[in-house]
Amino acid sequence: MDIKEYAGRRIQALQNKMAENNIAAAIIEKPENVKYFSNFNPVINSTHVYILVKPDAAPVLLAHSLRADHAREESTISDIRLYGKWGDNVPIAMTPEEAIAIVLGKVEGTLGMELDYMNVTQYGKLMDRLKPAKVVSISNLVNMLKIVKDDYEISCIRKSAELVDLGVRTTIDFLGQGYSEAEASTEGQYAMRKLWHKKFRDSEVCGYGTSEGGMIDSLHVWCLSEGHISYGCDAPKHYYPKDGDLTLPMAWAKTDGYHAENERTIIINGLNEFKQHAYDSMLKARETVFSILKPGTLFKDLYFAAAKVYSDSGFEKILPGRVGHGCGCSAHEFPSLAPDNELPLAPGMVITVEPGLMDKKWGGVRHSDTVLVTENGYERLTQLENGKIIIHPRRLG
């Protein structure tokens, strides 16, 4: 697949929307969106990268001189300009605000910006230089452009799904051998890396860094047990799950910038009556969601289907805020499977299905699958066993 062709289509779709909404210029800065529109992920974002777009002109990728070689190698946008000093690269300005002003000039009309991402200080500096007649947020516009995945994106997510399946399966296997949460998670992560080396070695597994750091490796596995499950995300501990515990191995991966995840709640030998009821309710909630998951179904209806199962089962006081979310360049991408989301599902959307219950007093139950909406229904991209999973660990700890 030619990523340059796909990225070009995405830029054209953005330019069409800008023309429809009378947006004279747009600044893309969020790293995931820079990747989406240009195929360039700088990995570390202490020096920001921007895409500068006008409806009727070729886009410009603006990067710090430090990122010049990397940008030239990966970007599908051919017009690359630089700011800041590094080596023998020649910048058009020393600061990004000065460089943006040189490229865009004074914006006579409306300027589109990702106002849910750009910081206030930079916003003020750009207003002083660009002096636009009007500013609008294009965050939701971009979200809607990204909501349906193209074939290239789906191919990347499929690779990530295969990696996370192996990560969780391996972690479960090592938990069954009596390893601790941390030890089993390490084995799961190592298995993912080996599969990457063997099968997907030409794909990058970098994530998206913050303004203070980078993410060189996006292959993550962690495992939480009992009350620790209620934390959602946290480092695994050297805890050895014991009889009657619920333990939850989770894996994330990004392949060429695109995310998939897998989560499975594991029963250690057996459960008391309350935990078993919660586990069975989770499986029923998932089954109910999948029974109506198809194009045309509203996102909120998926939520209410799961919530009804939980309420009928006596868990109305700890209902989840959502029962899944979008997947793409971001791990938690727009839109959510939430009670206020009235968007309909459409073919090509990629979401997670993860109706779960969490409570610090007893733990939590949740299976998460990465799912592609198809023309007639759905395809589970993560294919690990998704029913009741019981293990009987040998004691090593």
CATH topology (fold) name of the largest domain: Creatine Amidinohydrolase
What is the mean pLDDT?
A: 96
Largest sheet: 6 strands, mixed
Shape: globular
CATH architecture of the largest domain: Alpha-Beta Complex
In what order do the strands lie side by side in the largest sheet? 4-3-2-1-5-6
Name of the CATH superfamily of the largest domain: Creatinase/methionine aminopeptidase superfamily
The percentage helix is 25-40%
Strand content: 15-25%
Any idea what the radius of gyration is? 23 Å
Spans with pLDDT under 50 lasting ≥5 residues?
none
Cα separation of the termini: 48 Å
CATH class of the largest domain: Alpha Beta
Structural class: alpha+beta
Structure, explained:
With 397 residues, this protein is α+β, with helices and mostly antiparallel strands. It has 2 domains: 3-146, Creatine Amidinohydrolase, Chain A, domain 1; 151-391, Creatinase/methionine aminopeptidase superfamily (Creatine Amidinohydrolase), CATH 3.90.230. The protein contains 10 helices and 18 strands. The strands form 5 sheets. The chain has a 6-stranded mixed beta sheet with strand order 4-3-2-1-5-6, sandwiched between helices. Strands 7, 8, 9, 10 and 18 form a 5-stranded mixed beta sheet that branches. Helix 4 (96-104) runs parallel beside helix 5 and helix 7 packs across helix 8. The radius of gyration is 23 Å and the shape is globular. The mean pLDDT is 96.
